[in-house]
Design brief:
The complex is a heterodimer of chains A (about 130) and B (about 140).
Chain A: H1 3-31, H2 42-65, H3 79-101, H4 104-125
Helix pairs in contact in A: 1-2, 2-3, 3-4
Chain B: H1 3-27, H2 42-65, H3 78-98, H4 103-132
């Protein structure tokens, strides 16, 4: 497992714990009401689990597992993948802060960063989606 | 494929089937629903899909495919993996049964089952991350 995948997967695990902790608090609050404002966590909970956990884990794993080239550099130019992961995490943080501070502009910038992240990552991974003979 | 992974993956498919069955019920107009509480199953549908299917499938595949810890115990003590399976699915089943209940029933005491559901799912996540963390490494080097 390459270093970029290791860091990406560790980050996704951290987001997973954060996201499921929020979800557990909200579910428990549904059972025994203790704090009304806890529902404000809902969009952050969804953001963290969809992008921080699921998408990030997929990107980290694909970078590791997708076919490598026969000649070095085996994973091609990794800059697109690195930029993708950095932009993804920047986007997630902007969206979280945007929801927390109720700043729509930050949420929009966050979504643009996430779009850029996926475009950058796909640009990296596209040539690696080949058969073994590729 | 280890036994536990087979259980994770089979349970994941069952959760997806159940989620899609609920989706059919949720798509019905209110007057055509066989039971009135079907309309309160929206969150259950979403979590059966995202936790029961997506997350459980991820758990099973990670448990199988990530670099091993050692030749003797490639995936650590199996007990912890099975604990994840039982707590995750137990938590989801409690959610399926108790989340659609009306607020007054939950307030009368059944709400504690949702606390149990939340705790079990949280525990599954924490134990899974704990047992998988040492396996996020370059490769098994024989140490």
């Amino acid at each position: 497992m390459p270093r970029l995948s290791r860091w990406t997967i560790r980050l996704s695990f951290a987001y997973f714990i954060a996201g499921i902790s929020m979800g557990s608090l909200m579910l428990a609050n549904k059972g025994i009401h203790f704090e009304s404002s806890i529902w404000r966590l809902l969009p952050v909970h969804i953001e963290i689990l969809l992008f921080g956990w699921t998408v990030q884990l997929v990107l980290g794993t694909v970078f590791w597992i997708a076919p490598r080239f026969w000649v070095p550099p085996r994973r091609g130019n990794e800059a697109g993948a690195v930029a993708g992961i950095v932009l993804l995490n920047l986007g997630i943080l902007l969206v979280i802060v945007g929801y927390g501070a109720n700043l729509t502009l930050l949420i929009i910038f966050g979504r643009i960063a996430e779009l850029g992240a996926l475009a950058s990552f796909v640009h990296h991974i596209w040539p690696r989606i080949v058969s073994r003979q590729g | 494929m280890p036994t536990l992974t087979r259980w994770f993956i089979k349970a994941a498919w069952l959760h997806l089937l159940l989620a899609l069955l609920l989706a059919v019920g949720l798509a019905l107009p209110a007057e055509a629903r066989p039971v009135p509480w079907l309309g309160r199953l929206g969150p259950v549908y979403f979590h059966l899909f995202m936790v029961g299917w997506v997350t459980q499938m991820i758990f099973g595949v990670i448990y199988w495919m990530f670099p091993i810890i050692s030749r003797e115990q490639p995936r650590g003590r199996p007990f912890w993996g099975w604990l994840v399976f039982v707590t995750l699915n137990g938590g989801l089943l409690l959610r399926l049964v108790f989340e659609p209940l009306p607020a007054e029933t939950l307030a009368a005491g059944d709400g504690w089952f949702l606390v149990a559901s939340a705790t079990l799912q949280w525990l599954a996540a924490v134990v899974f991350v704990t047992i998988s963390w040492p396996r996020i490494k370059e490769k098994y080097r024989g140490e």
